[in-house]
Design the sequence.
């Protein structure tokens, strides 16, 4: 594999990541053991940013795959394609990562069907191999390769959960929205709004998070707070900014929208 190909997956600039506990040290230890890692937590709480930061810190290329239910094993592993000369094999992202020693991040892995998920099993065995069945080849993962998956435990029905035989191949780390002061720091730093505004946004989020399971499936994520801050920083009226980024994305229920809009009004009214 050419150096240019590897370079394109390297993260050039240090991603901004605010550590919330000992996750950086834990992940480094897991990487040093080449242990597969599972990041669990609600959407928009910092999982992807954390992986980007760790890939940068460890100096490893990062290959991210957003999983979905239409994804097949071939989408991960590779397939034969037709070109002028005939058929050529093209590696999928998992195969590329295994060959170049990248960190392969399978985002929202439960979205993939179970027959797709099982292709990662041999990579998590001590032999760390990947069979390319259609090509009749078995590759050995590069010594720097590591597999990381994320998933949001809240969404899954029992039907769609990961199998124990998959789960128990990973060390797992819990992620959640950062505590208030840290989250306000993140929002201020990411968007340029001042501390006071960031703190208000976080307080609104806390109100909404208390409604999880009481009419809301998910609370307001850190990602949405960053969206709100971005609009406010561009001069959008905070009420309109919050309505667009904190309330509308979350729910279509008119009563719930009123409740959330009212909460926004108590901070920005
Ligand atoms: N600990 C953190 N440090 C820095 N930014 C964070 C942190 N947690 C969340 N963010 C912000 O929230 C956004 C969404 O986080 P992301 O990693 O994409 O969420 P997830 O992958 O968990 O869905 C990021 O783009 C970043 O702006
Ligand atoms: Mg993500």
Sequence:
């Amino acid at each position: 594999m050419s150096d240019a190909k590897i370079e394109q997956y390297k993260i050039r600039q240090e991603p901004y990541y605010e550590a919330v506990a000992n996750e950086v040290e834990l992940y480094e230890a897991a990487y040093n053991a080449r242990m597969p890692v599972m990041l669990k937590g609600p959407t928009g709480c910092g999982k992807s940013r954390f992986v980007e930061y760790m890939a940068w810190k460890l100096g490893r290329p990062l290959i991210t795959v957003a999983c979905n239910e239409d994804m097949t094993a071939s989408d991960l592993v590779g397939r034969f394609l037709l070109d002028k000369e005939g058929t050529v094999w093209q590696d999928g992202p998992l195969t590329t990562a295994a060959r170049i020693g990248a960190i392969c991040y399978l985002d929202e892995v439960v979205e993939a069907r179970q027959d797709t998920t099982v292709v990662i099993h041999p990579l998590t065995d001590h032999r760390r191999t990947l069979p390319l069945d259609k090509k009749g080849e078995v590759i050995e993962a590069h010594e720097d390769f590591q597999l990381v998956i994320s998933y949001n435990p809240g969404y899954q029905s029992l039907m769609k959960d990961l199998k124990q035989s998959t789960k128990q191949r990973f060390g797992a780390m819990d992620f959640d929205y950062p505590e208030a002061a840290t989250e306000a720091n993140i929002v201020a730093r990411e968007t340029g709004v001042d501390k006071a505004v960031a703190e208000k946004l976080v307080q609104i989020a806390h109100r909404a998070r208390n409604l999880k399971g009481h009419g809301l499936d998910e609370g307001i994520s850190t990602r949405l707070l960053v969206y709100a801050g971005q609009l406010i920083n561009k001069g959008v009226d905070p009420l309109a900014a919050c309505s667009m980024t904190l309330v509308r994305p979350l729910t279509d229920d008119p009563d719930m929208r009123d409740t959330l809009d009212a909460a926004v009004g108590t901070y920005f009214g």
Remarks:
- Residues 39 and 47 are 7 Å apart (CA to CA).
